[in-house]
Amino acid sequence: MDARDAVTRRRSCQGRPPPTEDRVPHRRVVFLIRSLDIGGAQRQLIELASGLHRANWRVKVFVFYGGGELEADLLKRGVRIHALAKTGRWDVVGFSYRLLRSLRRERPDVLHGYMGIENLLSTAMQPFVPKMRVVWGVRASNMALEESHWLARLSFNLGCWLSRFADLVICNSTAGKDFHAAHGYPSTRMVVIPNGIDSERFKPDPEARSEMRRRWAIGDDHVLVGLIARLDPMKDHDTFLRAAAAVIRDRPTVRFVCVGDGPEPYRGRLKGLASDLGLDDRLTWAGPHINMPEVYNALDLAVLSSRWGEGFPNVVAEAMATGVPCVVTDVGDAASVVGDTGWVCPPHDPAELARALTVATASRRDLAAYGQRARRRVRAEFGSERLTSTTLEKLAELVNDSQ
Do the bridges between strand 223-228 and strand 190-192 make them parallel or antiparallel, or are there none, so unpaired? Predict the structure, then answer.
């Protein structure tokens, strides 16, 4: 190289902008979910999507139905939402076309389905969007298919067959991974990433506690036990109510609250059962709530009474992060989430649940100590940072392998 060539090359290099992180192409991920109505899975999607957004991924959430109560929270965190304007169950052709058109416009590196039908649709779209990798989200464990709607059974069976085409299946529980692998899911492409809890959002707050208990007319001398769940047979409110009726005979200061909603006539049947059990003046039906930290803070003890289907029960870890210990049935990964910070009993057994509640409510001082241990456990094992970092690692591996 002569001197003139060297000078020319040096000038050329000096005129070229230095490589910066900003010039590295952003990875794109689209989440697909039915809606952002109130629910544990929806809150976890918000946590993960905002974490990926902070990590410099371009994140967009596609919803079948817009207008969900939790959309404002996601938008506040800087994540974009695209409503696909599904008009009903049988809006299939038009909806699928809108979804495909939106994906081809967005060109994501990853399409992440969030539960059953969404997973199936993700795989159906993959052949039409070049280089897009598909991730399935599995958030349930041992589903009681015989008690499910026919469409849920069909969706599950299709999922067992189509799961072989997913590039990655992320389960939020070991129980969920084992159950689905036993039904044909590809175990070599399945990973477990537990839910992540924002312990700065879910934390003890005496003012929130006082305000919510005031609204519910719960005195300072009352021990408040809460079941936070949609009104659904899976959550087994029947067992909770029967256990509550047994507890009030020995614990006159204990009060109960059910937070969540569900369809009639099921809601009416549960309320009728509570009246028959003599719980009218000891039980509050609070309906659905958006501000969950307030709800958890009002409680002294949280209950998960589910019969089946739980993966990683979000409500348990959120209560624990708020300093509220839990009594749980041994479904999904509930027992391993609680560890030694709460009480575990068999599902669908009112006598055993009543026994656990009686033991747990014997001493408010012990309850408080269990709550402190529960919060420490969540911060150490189930932080939102771990959810984001582990998912980022898996998604990056997936995208890099496709290059």
Answer: unpaired
Give how far the C-alpha of residue 20 lies from the chain's centroid of Cα atoms, to the nearest Å.
36
Length of the chain: 403
- Rounded Cα distance between 314 and 217, Å, is 27
φ and ψ at 15, to 5 degrees? -85, -10
What is the CB-side half-sphere exposure of residue 110 using CA atoms within 13 A?
Answer: 29
Q: Nearest CA to 325 among 229, 224, 212?
A: 224
Per-10-residue mean pLDDT, the chain, length 403:
40 40 69 94 95 97 97 96 95 96 97 95 96 96 74 88 97 96 96 97 97 96 97 97 96 96 96 97 96 97 96 97 98 97 98 98 96 98 96 94 68
CA distance 70 to 215: 23
356 closest CA partner among 330, 333, 328, 317: 328
Instruction: Identify residue 14 by its one-letter amino acid code.
Output: Q
Domains of the chain in start order, with CATH, are 25-196+384-401 (3.40.50.2000), 206-381 (3.40.50.2000)
